[in-house]
Amino acid sequence: MNFLGLPILVCAYFSYVYAYEVDTYDFLMPDVWPHRDELYLCTPIRISPRNNYYIVGFEPNATMHTAHHMLLYGCSEPGTDDPVWSCGEMQSNDIDDQYNTASPCREGSQIVYAWARDAPSLQLPKDVGFLIGKDSQIKYLVLQIHYMHKFPESKRDNSGVFIKYTKEPMHRQAGVILLGTGGVIPANRVEHMETACTIRENKVIHPFAFRTHTHALGTAVSGYAVRREATGDIWQLIGKKNPQLPQMFYPVADNTPIKQGDVLAARCTMNNTHSFPVKIGATNKDEMCNFYLMYWVENTYPLDQKYCFSAGPPYYYWVRAPQNFNRVPDLEASSL
């Protein structure tokens, strides 16, 4: 079966998970040459518009010695029609002499999967899948890989991910919302990078997995669902992890459904032992503060909101947030 329409060579096979047939699509970089340090490369595949498909698992084909991290975007339109392009979102004005430059998505950007630090495969829960294709806003998948180091001229790379998918209809659709910050970490200081967004849509989301991501300075990343009660805020821990461990999707600490009016909040604790400030940015010398929440919804589409970002320090903290939080679990949110 021709799952995706672009002319990329694939090796498909199928197995059986639960009670339905599952095929595999090898979504790999087409022998690219990372010709300089800190290069982000993207490659697309077009979903057949005649059918619905449901992604039910991801098997990474990469190592941290080759790829710093890997993201799989769902797009309405890819950033360009090129088979490969330079796509560092935070350095989109950068001119590359080997590849054209564009964002991963031109329209309809959302995260479907993320990987770093030799994280293992991910299998979604029973009857849960990412809808792509005919009835989905995801018409293309775009693989983005951050290559931290330049490759020798004779070496090429085909890192990527094996996508497990089925045509069996799923009444539980998966989604991802990415929480993150901008900001600066002052020299010789422990800093909290925080963000929070209220769920405005009339949907119930069921969290089942989370993933944390920082670079070298992160010591703890935590995510919460905050319920606004008359007697005070209730901070439900979704997940917390040391981001220096394999950056896989871990099971949530509490799968209580999250509803309209609840708030998603995340904190990255950063320990900057350098004598200079470190900013949020795209290179390994910069930092990132990301908390990914993977969830499912029943008999409806995932949240329209795909991202929740704040300006970060020194401009944004929970104590200054428009939600006027109380009962902030300050110690718990920063310690493992």
Our Rg estimate from Cα atoms comes to 20 Å
Regions with little confidence, pLDDT below 50 for 5+ residues: 5-17
Shape: globular
Order of helices and strands: EEEEEEEEEEEEEEEEEEEEEEEEH
* First-last Cα distance: 47 Å
Quantity of strands, as a count: 24
What oligomeric arrangement do these chains adopt?
single chain
Break the fold down into its secondary structure elements and pairings.
Elements: E1 14-17, E2 20-28, E3 39-46, E4 52-61, E5 69-75, E6 77-78, E7 85-86, E8 105-107, E9 110-116, E10 122-123, E11 128-133, E12 140-147, E13 160-166, E14 172-181, E15 184-185, E16 189-198, E17 206-213, E18 218-229, E19 232-241, E20 250-251, E21 263-272, E22 278-279, E23 290-298, E24 307-310, H1 330-334
Parallel strand pairs: 11-14, 14-24
Antiparallel strand pairs: 1-2, 2-13, 3-7, 3-12, 4-10, 4-11, 4-13, 5-9, 5-12, 6-8, 14-23, 15-22, 16-21, 17-20, 17-23, 18-19, 18-21
Q: What does it look like?
A:
- There is one protein chain.
- The protein has 336 residues and is mostly beta strands.
- The protein has two domains: 14-170, Copper type II, ascorbate-dependent monooxygenase, N-terminal domain (Jelly Rolls, Sandwich); 175-334, Jelly Rolls, CATH 2.60.120.230.
- Helices cover 1% and strands 46% of the residues.
- It is built from one helix and 24 strands.
- The chain has one helix at residues 330-334; strands at 14-17, 20-28, 39-46, 52-61, 69-75, 77-78, 85-86, 105-107, 110-116, 122-123, 128-133, 140-147, 160-166, 172-181, 184-185, 189-198, 206-213, 218-229, 232-241, 250-251, 263-272, 278-279, 290-298, 307-310.
- Strands 1, 2, 4, 10, 11, 13, 14, 17, 20, 23 and 24 form an eleven-stranded mixed β-sheet that branches. Strands 7-3-12-5-9 form a five-stranded antiparallel β-sheet, with no helix packed on it.
- A hairpin with a 2-residue loop joins strand 18 (218-229) and strand 19.
- The longest helix has 5 residues, at 330-334.
- Residues 5-17 have low confidence and may be disordered.
